[in-house]
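Quick start: read one record
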Amino acid sequence: MIIDVTLPQLGESVTEGTLTKFLVREGDVVKKEQPLLEIATDKADSEMPSPATGRIVKLLVAVGATVPVHTLLLQIDDSVTTSTAAPAPQAAASAPPAADGNGSLAKSAVGGSLATPTARKTALENDVDLAGVTGSGAHGRVTRDDVLRAKTNDSSLLLSTPPRTEPPLPMAARQALPVPAQAQQIAQIVNQGGGFVPPIPGLGYGAFKLPPYKSREGDKVVPFTRRRRITADHMTYSKFASPHVVTVAEVDLHKSARLREANKERYKAEGHSLTMLAFVVAAGARALRETPTMNARVLDDAYVLFNDINLGVAVDSPDGLVVPVIRHADELGVRGIVRAIDDVSKRARSGKITIDDLSGATFSITNPGMKGNLFGGAIINQPNVGILRMGEIQKRVVVVEGADGEDQMAIHPVMYVALSYDHRVVDGVAANSFLWRVTELLEKGEFEV
């Protein structure tokens, strides 16, 4: 029987994926659960396992193609097993081009010019019309280099134009100037085309233009990785979409630190690390349950208060910062949170993190690590309405109440925590109540460990 292998739903918000690599060839005999191919999405890169043992009949999508979920990727004949298989015929060097439902060559999964995802992003960022770009890739596919080449050819004419000496245009006239395509798209996202003209990355705004980069000996140009490009786009969108407000609290960690010191060796013997991050996550989860406005998402003309508390915890990975999710964090306690953090951190560092691990966060917490700084305001992880950033823990002199009721000076570990929140739906009262509660829980140190 022929088994159709399609692109699955790789996360609640994932609608398409890019085929980055086939791990098999036509004619290969594969075992069940053997990786067949690699798929990249805006969440993560992952391998797709074989649903059955059998022979690869046909590869139906081209490497580099971006296709929607449920697209047919390849076919397997499960009547052929490893014990009955003849030697596999030599496969073609590369997969065939992507085809549409009628079998004709597809221009792209969403129509328009045949181009790689990177090329589409580059074209958008540089206001280049893909329809006018000649592709040098396989089957005429437009690559990132093709877009940059087209941009260079156009901008060379601009750079040779003498600088303008007349005074800048008045505001009324400036607003009447044609708006580049990227600015129009960003304006539509931010305020549905209400007249806002944002700055254009890499170009400038209004009369201000960025000077072109001139290469100098010793300079090193580092191309964006796919993960870095996704992060850059995410952060830019977040700053445009959410009016950020930052509020900071000072936390005396004396009692929580003593609790950690009393139990960290026991956790270490069990193969886990009892860090202050776990206490902050536990306190944050409890405070979110008491301040539901912070556990929300903004819609077009409404907002959702989530029932589940799923905390995204930023961790480092070989491809950059990722934010895996600890689900139902308010139900776990410190021990469960420690285990969850250790699990996702190890898989992130080994490159084994999955798309599901990165989906569904309702609030985020970030920790700059041992070499952090006093405090800082993090950018909100969309579509959340808040993110809590830990600062560096330092021993400082604090004023405490002694046994006799008199104020005394003591040396305690102290940390600043900064809350960035989306002022579209979160008011100062709710944000300050949340942060005050986190502070209170950490200062009391009343956690079950």
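The chain has nine helices and 21 strands.
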